[in-house]
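Students often ask why we bother encoding 3D structure as a string. The short answer is that it lets us treat folding as translation between two languages. Here is a chain of 407 residues written in the first language.
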Amino acid sequence: MKNYTRSLRCINCGKISSLKPIYSCEMCGGVLEVTYDYKKFKKDHETIYNISLANKSSLLPIDINEEEPFPYFNTPLIKAKGIGLDVGTNNLYFKLEFNTLTGSFKDRPVYVGIKKAKEFGYQKVIVASSGNGASAVAAYATREGLESIVLVPATTPAAKVSQAYAYGAKVIKVEGPYSNAFNLAWQISQEEDVYNITTTFLNPYTIEGDKVVAYELIQNLKGNSPDYVVVPIGAGPLLVGIYNGFYENTLINEKQKIPHMIGVQSMGCNPIVKAFNEGKQHVTPEKSPDTIAGGIGDGLVGYSQDGTYTLNTIKDSEGIALEVSDKEIMHAKNLLASREGLYVETSSAASVAALIKHAKTHPFSSTSNIVIILTGHGLKESFGKNIEEEVPVISNNVEALKLLLKK
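And here it is in the second language, the structure alphabet:
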């Protein structure tokens, strides 16, 4: 299958690098993005809508088997039955990103990351995750014959830990917030022969998998883009990836539009929302996250530039950043189950809570097409074998991690 990938480019200084296993700009340390030859793609394909998902995968940085072009995805888009009335629109949709191999949206970026790991010749991969990324990396690494190491916060729900453990990963809990696990994974990937697939903006390839959500939405909506897309965010790669997919669509067909992107955080961990509301150009880390929505409880300590990237993307789309309380999130989670028959994980419900809250003071048009991204299944938090005694917990120290990995 023809591939249109060109290079890596730094979003800060613009330095161009070859498609190699690096995690940041070698000149300024900035976030990297993959570039493509859109002119050639446009010459071969008039629109994104009129081509198959198999051919859309040629706008990914991996070589894909034509018989299994981008497996396990093309998740359902369903129309709301009751909650649309609370929002004030007749066209509220849910994108069921939990309808994947491991039950969350992380399958998309991880699939791309695992393929790159194999391409680069790695035998071992590592991920820092609040839970969903851990499960996805463990599953896809197993399918590709790679070893996997997952670092999760010590507070990660047992169901998410047991899922990664069942897939054969070496699971390690790290004391403190998610940022500690993130920084340890970064350190070990610099010192050992292990490929880091942490799905923030650290790995420049993984976010490309998130673009396919936009491609599918365009196809679901018969060639049109929605007016708004609502996404729960920690660092925000899912939101940025979806935006990038819609942006690519405008490069191929200038008549298309980019939706207003709405990013949602919990009040207990809201560095991006704070920066947005205060009109700041850069995001300040949140050192002490305090929220039940662990999947989006990312304080961005040590990598706040990721949050700034997401902040700028929201602004570029003329979107907004919203915050909700844990109480509002839990109410929305119960509402989804009782009125829509959708049982989602806590972080996933934040988007619904924010949209309902925002609509009370800023009504949407009754004709607005709004898509809420539901990122994970509720069963991932509720059940699972209790393996607390089997999973080691370490302090936030790279030497402790090295010692454990040698056992």
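Translate back mentally: The first helix runs from residue 38 to 44. Keep this in mind for the problem set.
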